[in-house]
Amino acid sequence: MNAGTGIVETPVLLTESDPSFESLLLTDERLRAFNETVPAGILIVAVEDGRVLFSNRFFNEVLGFEGAGILGHGWRELFVDPDDRERMLVRFIEQGEVRNFELRLRRPDGRLVWGLASLSEIPIRGEDLLLFAFVDITALKEAEEEIRRLANHDALTGLRTLRSFRDLVEEALARARRERSEFAILFVDLDRFKPVNDTFGHEAGDFVLKDVAQRLHACVRATDTVGRIGGDEFVVLAEKVSVRLARKIATRIVAAMELPFVLPDGEEVRIGASLGIALYPRHGDGLDSLMKAADDAMYRVKRTTRGALAIAGS
């Protein structure tokens, strides 16, 4: 028995002789039709031992159960997070009912299903039964996640957007201040990219930008973050680095951008990149000052040699 809820979770198979199940569900044609057509998952659960006495067609389809596959088993096994079930039951005890409680259930095949659950008592004399209703919101949760992903990642390259990158730098600042460590921001601006668009078209330009993103990822560490903040401008956040290591990462990036880019039609183009480096705390103590220092260092390269790197203040 669960001390907090009074529900025992030991599965007990339901038998055909169970009078409550027969009388409540099978002999009432209207109730049976309702449970077959309502667009929500329905479970009837015995309070005494937590057995599932009934599951409607919609619940079986959404959760991937065939026939009476869930009947007679405890409902605890359905919950991805046992704490969700405990919190829902506590709310039920305190308020007498639960409405629109967001949680996840697990299908037999391991897939997770997001839903809004409601819980209420079935007011039938002599029966201690709970009605568990479940509305599938998996598609909505996936859409929300996609919206968040698109807001934080560039649609073309999949890299972090400027807004997302700034948030990550703020987090890095907090960690560096707490740990008294250094981190670097590398500002990367492509050279000779505009002629690619002008000569070969924007599809070719997009192809190059996606290749640039892949090369940047190949040049940095797994713990580093790469972002695209403009048409041909990119940034890298590298935490817990020295000047020497930041320069090493930057050198790899410059070398990678000097290699030819082979377009889908076989045409080769060469661009290159100019790069500026700023380190916390020596070149700035906040996001804006560090970004400006890295940007200024990059433009010094851009105005002179191109295809090279510079460290802020040097």
UniProtKB/TrEMBL annotation:
It comes from Magnetospirillum fulvum. Residues 181-314 form the GGDEF domain. This is PAS domain S-box-containing protein/diguanylate cyclase (GGDEF) domain-containing protein. GO terms for molecular function: catalytic activity. CDD domains: GGDEF (cd01949), PAS (cd00130). InterPro entries: Biofilm_reg_signaling (IPR052155), GGDEF_dom (IPR000160), Nucleotide_cyclase (IPR029787), PAC (IPR001610), PAS (IPR000014), PAS-assoc_C (IPR000700), PAS-like_dom_sf (IPR035965), Rev_trsase/Diguanyl_cyclase (IPR043128). Residues 27-88 form the PAS domain. It comes from the Bacteria. Gene3D superfamilies: 3.30.70.270, PAS domain. Pfam families: GGDEF, PAS_9. Signal peptide: none annotated. Residues 99-149 form the PAC domain.
